[in-house]
User: What shape does this take?
Amino acid sequence: MAEQKLTFCRICENQCGLKLTVEGERIVHVEPDTEHVASRGFACNKGLTLENVRASPDRVTTPLKKVDGRFEPIGWPQALDEIGARLRAIRARHGDDSVGLYFGNPISFSLLMPMLITGFAQGLNTAKVFTTGSLDCNNKFLVGKHMYGSPMALTFPDVDATRFLLIIGGNPAISKMSFINLPDPVRRLEAVVQRGGRVVHLNPRRTETAKAVGEQVFIRPDTDVFFLLAFLREIITRDGIRHDVVDAHMNGFDAVAALVAPWTPEKQAEVTGVPADTLRELVGAYLAADGAALYGSTGINQGSNGSTAFWLLEVINAVTGNLDRRGGALMGQGIVDYAKATANADAKVFHSRIGNTPSFLGALPTALLADEILVPGPDQVRAMFVISGNPLLSGTNSARMEQAFGALELRVSIDLVRNETAELADYILPGTHFTERPDLPFSFFTFSGLMPEPWIQYTGRMVAPPGAARDESWILARLARACGTPLFGSRLLQAVLDAGELARRLPFVGPRLKALPDRVLDLILRVAKLGGTRGLRKFPHGKRLPHNGGNNYLGQRVITASGKVELAPAALLALAAARLPRSHEQALRTRDEVRLITRRERYTHNSWAHNDAAFVKGRRHTNYLYMHPDDAARLGIADGAPARVESAAGALEVPVALSADLMPGAVALPHGWGHQAATGLSVASKTRGVNANLLAADGPDAIEPLSGMAQFNGIAVRISAVAAATATRAAS
Ligand SMILES: Nc1nc2c(c(=O)[nH]1)N[C@H]1C(S)=C(S)[C@@H](COP(=O)(O)OP(=O)(O)OC[C@H]3O[C@@H](n4cnc5c(=O)[nH]c(N)nc54)[C@H](O)[C@@H]3O)O[C@H]1N2
Ligand SMILES: Nc1nc2c(c(=O)[nH]1)N[C@H]1C(S)=C(S)[C@@H](COP(=O)(O)OP(=O)(O)OC[C@H]3O[C@@H](n4cnc5c(=O)[nH]c(N)nc54)[C@H](O)[C@@H]3O)O[C@H]1N2
Ligand code: SF4
Ligand SMILES: [Mo]
Assistant: This one.
């Protein structure tokens, strides 16, 4: 019998409310939850087609072991015993740091799993932890740490009240936005314009969002930092600084003012391509607006100066009085003061043996992963756990990453499917789809504040996991025991968990005991005085909590040692001094050369959307190199013809799609493709797309030094037409 169940999506920050029709253990229909307190009937194509991923015939439903190059199903006891024995041997021979862990993106949208994965890494006592933070947003955490006293002290634009919003390197219509919980972002941006405000997009590409709402300003890839330097200088020139606010609540203004002093609008125009008058006009409008904000996303994060650019952006919002006011940038707060609780999350810094690169937030840059495995030495990584990630496609320098994974002694992937990284594994352990786990919206707690309209909701498990697939908390607790590396390094906690698991197997009593995730979620909700999971079940569409404010941060919740916002942290000043002159000289020298940027599309989600036939049908069976017709004409490449793209890291061939949406000199290539070798992905392996990250450089010189961020935007490339004979060979 069909049953309707309410839950929320966990593919991106929006966590849209969904109404599922469930028959037995199948989800037969998914629709937006029109009564959801936050998403109010909004959901996107990815959430609505979740069953195609969840119930894919390619789901791994039993542990798999590679025997003579082929995967064979085995039982959990054998998988855990064998992995445990092999891992113990590797640790005994080579030490704790010979075991690495890569923690991918999707599972971080669950509340408990990231904590448990951290606990698993702590048990392993390894410094070789890698996350997607160094691929998408560590620069933001770094700026939070230095300016606001905690890596998790993060601001968000008050889109629903702003009169002027400058979106730098984001594409809400497609990505649905990052670092903010803002379901239906395009409608909410349209509302800005409808109430007489402005939305401006600073982007090398006229995006789907820019076409729907607002104005386009083109900027040369990876030059935003110069635009922002000049933007702040122009504000100072016009006396747009709120000195009363700065004097009362901020330190270091003079030092940033000195940093930006040389950067005239004309000087930035030489490298950014943004005319000086355009910048001046934007500054005028920003200052005149009754509530204005700059918002930056991966377009700047993944450039070569992401930390400096994001820092300047935050300084601009702060010194103009737009921080902590309605319509500006808000510093959110949750039920728990997560920023305060995590203020010391980066206190323990260690260094990679590769380039003596510092860790950030307990992890090393993913762009060093291949080196950590391949470069011989005492702490060489010899075993890897990959949890909910696909570094072979999503990380830097894919050819080298593949070589590195090939060189390991032990590879274990916990995933839903045999992705490209899992394809190389010795063991694949079947985890759960998010609909198969109970949860709370992660961002309510962890990003406490990135919810303009905070809400909370408890969701139970909607359907049972297929076959022998197991909740990741179960897998990690079992693995920790098998490897003799107790979770969080606590033998006591591990013993309690093991006892709980044993108790659940008892007759009569066992079935009544809650599984671990439910017990912990219940406890969290009790501590937060939200009445446990039972209390929240009374709010099936989510429970709305008070608005996140404005006028409640400065002078009240600033957690830096000085109690003030630090506008000029020494680390960021030093980073700017070390990098800006060279970056500027390079940008100037190469301003007529072509730069590669990334692009997300409606039917992609990093590397894991292409195994859905509907998502890759027709023209969507491959990625394209998007290029302005003038560039194509100059290079002698016709629409649809293959081009060869070379960077310092590697080369590939890909068909060109002409697009006047790109500015000349910028080409865009979507990532997450290149599935041909993943035979476990029956649909994706037949797609033709190429892996963009063959072109992304790795190693200590390729990253932004403080945050460890990889560079995916502004990559220097050489593009050439592929001779007809070669092209035919490549296509056959
Ligand atoms: N459909 C879809 N949605 C997704 C994802 C996906 O893969 N597919 N991924 C999810 C994830 S993990 C994340 S982190 C978020 C990211 O969310 P967003 O940050 O909004 O991601 P993008 O849509 O890639 O937007 C980045 C924009 O930056 C622009 N850009 C590139 N280089 C530069 C530059 O040098 N300067 C400026 N100013 N702009 C530049 C690009 O043209 C692009 O429009 O999206 C999430 N949502
Ligand atoms: N060139 C270029 N490269 C990029 C980017 C870019 O813009 N350009 N963007 C970067 C960004 S923003 C990100 S976040 C990274 C993403 O990098 P990754 O997280 O490494 O890659 P994904 O493609 O998201 O891989 C997700 C895997 O998790 C699995 N999975 C999904 N849900 C679950 C679950 O609940 N449990 C388990 N166990 N597994 C699950 C999927 O099956 C899939 O195989 O890629 C980065 N790489
Ligand atoms: S916008 Fe994000 S959370 Fe909402 S349905 Fe789409 S993928 Fe899921
Ligand atoms: Mo991301």
Observations:
- Residues 570-589 form the longest helix (20 residues).
- DSSP finds 29 helices and 27 strands in the chain.
- Confidence is low (pLDDT under 50) at residues 727-732.
- The longest strand covers residues 651-658.
